[in-house]
Recover the amino acids of this structure.
């Protein structure tokens, strides 16, 4: 497919901007069941070994020096750096236990450290974690894999980037969020233009292949003018990728958000104006809208993968290396192996206790049935390629698409009439004005949100953020 320009239609956005999942997985995490049996995980890994697919590894490091009020991540806020080592010892145990089940020759095409703030740990602890990982898994010795890490630029030592490059990382994801001092004060997140610029320059000199910067719109005291100024600085720094995330104010779910003064939040109208202006500014700077808040340079691997029809989506967002089984380590992390999801305990005591007994720390999970797998394929095509080919799905899953999804196609008729999506002789194609509302389109194919499941419908607003 070819990349296209996003068109802004205020009327359609007003009508379709509802709450809904982000579809980093399907089925989504609320469907996971407690007490998921380890045997299901073991069987899935055995099938995975037989298939011989490459691996994606994720490591969750939950520590942060300070709290960012907007944050909804699983985190532990502490200034005591010594708290990291006992956790890392447990993480090393989990790596060793899981590696016993996995064929050692399988290549690791993707690796990601997230958090929290992964750079909370010391340089020596970073080296040791990567050494232990390389001891048990087949890491790439060159830059053929996509090995990335999330960093908080505020106060990060420049020399730490050299360490990250030394141990194998080739991509950085930098959480900037906003440069405006008033906004930073309101959310307790500080990083200056000078700090970020110095890190970006050092990253290029160290030979990192890609730099991604994250921003959030909808924070207190933001306006079109403040976001325009922040984006001017960002564009001047020339990152290969940029994410513009919607701030979802949900203090009933995330306690830290209770510290945000709601009176400072932009109105719904202003928030949409910020997004519209930002999209226009980024497209004018030659960034391509990949989808779901993500932008990238035309030559970036994400854009190339989308153009070639190979773009994928997982718990870390869009990915260029498809057909990987994801093994996730650390508290709250979610593995996606073969046809199952498995989530670790969300608190450190439970996580450490399981590992101290020599067992893997799985707390929740889900075994996907054939219908789940089929609908996941449809949703992934829509969310990654903005189209769905009936013949491809029908042949792959031994169904007649139009018969199997007759109810869903009927539900799409209002969206077709409104110009969000086109029904062609070959399948479905999302229009330029439908791309921003792709989450709403995908919800039609989400069996767990079907009109007949009233409980699911009622929980949408409580569980999920609005689309924009």
């Amino acid at each position: 497919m070819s990349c296209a320009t996003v068109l802004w239609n205020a009327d359609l956005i007003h009508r379709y901007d509802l709450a809904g999942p982000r579809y980093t997985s399907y089925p989504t995490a609320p469907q996971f069941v407690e007490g998921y049996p380890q045997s299901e995980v073991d069987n899935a890994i055995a099938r995975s070994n037989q298939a011989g697919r490459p691996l994606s590894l994720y490591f969750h490091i939950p520590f942060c020096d300070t709290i960012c009020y907007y944050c909804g991540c699983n985190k532990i806020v502490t200034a005591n750096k010594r708290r990291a080592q006992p956790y890392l010892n447990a993480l090393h145990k989990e790596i060793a236990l899981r590696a016993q089940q996995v064929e050692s020759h399988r290549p690791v095409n993707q690796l990601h450290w997230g958090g929290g703030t992964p750079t909370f740990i010391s340089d020596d602890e970073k080296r040791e974690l990567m050494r232990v990982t390389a001891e048990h898994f087949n890491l790439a010795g060159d830059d053929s894999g996509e090995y990335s890490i999330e960093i908080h630029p505020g106060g990060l030592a420049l020399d730490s980037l050299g360490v990250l490059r030394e141990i194998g990382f080739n991509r950085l994801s930098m959480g900037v969020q906003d440069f405006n001092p008033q906004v930073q004060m309101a959310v307790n997140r500080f990083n200056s233009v000078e700090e970020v610029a110095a890190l970006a320059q050092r990253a290029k000199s160290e030979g990192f292949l890609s730099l991604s910067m994250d921003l959030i719109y909808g924070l207190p005291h933001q306006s079109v003018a403040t976001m325009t100024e922040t984006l001017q600085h960002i564009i001047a720094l020339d990152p290969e990728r940029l994410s513009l995330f919607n701030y979802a104010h949900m203090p009933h779910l995330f306690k830290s958000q209770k510290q945000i003064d709601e009176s400072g939040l932009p109105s719904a109208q202003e928030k949409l104006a910020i997004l519209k202006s930002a999209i226009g500014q980024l497209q004018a700077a030659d960034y391509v809208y990949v989808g779901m808040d993500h932008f990238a340079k035309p030559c970036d691997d994400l854009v190339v993968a989308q153009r070639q029809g190979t773009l994928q989506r997982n718990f870390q967002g869009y990915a260029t290396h498809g057909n990987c089984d994801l093994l996730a380590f650390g508290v709250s992390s979610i593995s996606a192996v073969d046809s199952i999801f498995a989530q670790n305990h969300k608190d450190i005591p439970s996580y450490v206790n399981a590992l101290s007994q020599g067992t893997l720390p799985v707390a929740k999970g889900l075994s996907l049935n054939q219908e789940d797998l089929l609908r996941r394929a449809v949703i992934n095509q829509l969310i990654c390629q903005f189209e769905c080919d009936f013949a491809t799905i029908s042949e792959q899953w031994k169904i007649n698409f139009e018969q199997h999804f007759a109810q869903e196609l009927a539900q799409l008729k209002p969206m077709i009439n409104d110009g969000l999506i086109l029904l062609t002789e070959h399948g479905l194609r999302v229009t330029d004005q439908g791309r921003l509302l792709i989450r709403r389109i995908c919800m039609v194919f989400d069996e767990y949100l079907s009109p007949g499941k009233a409980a699911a419908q009622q929980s949408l607003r409580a569980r999920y953020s609005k689309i924009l």
Summary: The longest strand covers residues 107-115. The radius of gyration is 22 Å. The first helix runs from residue 10 to 16. Residues 353 and 361 are 8 Å apart (CA to CA).
